[in-house]
């Protein structure tokens, strides 16, 4: 099975969005460079960010998100972001009416079921878990192998926390990657076992 990686862009004070779910300038680094990150031509990053991010994105087999993110993005209009092949949505509610049954979304209850389904779909590839409440729950359950953060030079002061509502200490190893891009610092930590 592939690694389970908790991932997201984050402010320097640890938030993934403000209290109104607005990520503000957290994603400016995705349009702050000259190297196209995907075929859209919209996302352009520094060469350092491209080398780090593209290699990571190409290894993702499935992404786990909460229902809140799915609903907020309107299911990405049926096409998962970044070329992800499968999205596992943690939800107590079924697939929404009108959601294309052929779209690669899988609705499951509970984080353990979500990780199991994502690992089944991803095979040897990476299972990515979106930062926030669901990511924090997966970390608290001991199911995360690695934490990746794209730290943006933004201070929110309050909002939606990167680790959600985790209330216990979790130790990470020293960062084994620290890469400076335009308007971002990419960090990677292994979870201490």
TrEMBL record:
| Chain segments annotated as transmembrane | none
Pfam families in the record: RibD_C
User: Known InterPro entries for this protein?
Assistant: DHFR-like_dom_sf, RibDG_C, Riboflavin_Biosynth_HTPR
Where does the Bacterial bifunctional deaminase-reductase C-terminal domain lie?
Answer: 4-173
| PANTHER family named among the record's database cross-references | BIFUNCTIONAL DEAMINASE-REDUCTASE DOMAIN PROTEIN, DIHYDROFOLATE REDUCTASE FAMILY PROTEIN (AFU_ORTHOLOGUE AFUA_8G06820)
Which protein, by its recorded name, is this?
Answer: Dihydrofolate reductase
Organism, scientific name: Paeniglutamicibacter psychrophenolicus
